[in-house]
Amino acid sequence: MAEPSYIAKTEQHSIELHLKGDWCIEQQTPDLLEKYFKKSDHCSHLYLINASIGQWDSMLMVFVMQCVFWCKRHAINLDVQQMPPAVGKLLAIATAVVPYQPPSVDSSAGVSTWLGENSIRKFFSELKKFLIFIGSLCNTFVKLFGGKSSARKVDILYFIEQVGPRGLGIITLVSVLVGMILAYLGSVQLRQLGAQIYVANLVSIGMTREMGPLMTGVILAGRTGAAYAAQLGTMQVNEEIDAIKTMAMSTMEFLVLPRMLALVMIMPLLCIYSDILGMIGGAIITTGMDVSWTQYILQTQHSIDLVDFICGIVKSLFFALLIGIAGCQAGLQCGRDSTAVGSATTSAVVRAIVYLVIADAAFNILYDKMGI
Questions:
Q1: Which of 24, 81, 286, 349 has the fewest CB atoms within 10 Å, measured from its CB?
Q2: What span, in angstroms and rounded, lies between the C-alpha atoms of 48 and 67?
Q3: Residue 269 placed within a domain
Q4: pLDDT tens-digit map of 206-239
């Protein structure tokens, strides 16, 4: 097996490396001859030429990538057209994903100015993408209500199972614990007044109007919203979404609509389920404070009515839409590599939680103004 080597020929503004021998992993990779490059201070091109290359494997690509990095550092153009065709294809794949470069800060403008301008620019860019996605989603729902949607029922049923039955365990645990926490918080003050019976009021109203829909939304944001973003992001990386578009199929109807409908259908039921479990968790604590189960149940019945349940259910419906929007938008706008999928998943969870907090505050203000 011939050892790998090359002959360097320098011209006025270029260098040619004529490669020969067997470039296999068992051999030692030749180093770049820096002396040839130093002789050409004004070198602008580096040519890799297949003089008499025999067998080769990844060792040759390692050498080529060394040349790529060296040329980037010295602003030199690299030409591999005279290398084996497979080398050019592998090089295109290896350099397809641009390494992450942190944003540069204009020192003349100042850090605070740069942060302000960058934040405003990013805000309006994200707002534009959000509005475009909302417009497409509205058109999809119009087609659905008009009976012209191509969404498949089997997809809707699959996502209903994914959102509902598979998420009961974590919702059960969190709801019971939240009810117990509310009971403990209320008992700290109410027991001093001998009014521990009113812990039932605190737990029932807090769960039905606030904690039930909010905690269910947070759980689904971290569980379902992230799953949607990861699923669609992986499809984007694997070019499956491009294939769907090539077949003249709407990605909004085929991919987004079933996920949105599953969330909207299941979220109110999970909210009611969470309300009940939260009250049970509060009862576990309250009955340990000289309050019987019968007293707790009667006090709960008198403290809440149908309006309280409806307020929480209305919140849960809007929360479901926001979680679906955050997850599906992040997935469809994902990049083409694994890092982008991770970023999309993180973005989906963060956006969903921010949307939930803002929407919850808006609903509370609206309910207060309406007197409910």
A1: 81
A2: 9
A3: yes
A4: 999 999 999 999 999 999 999 999 999 999 888 8
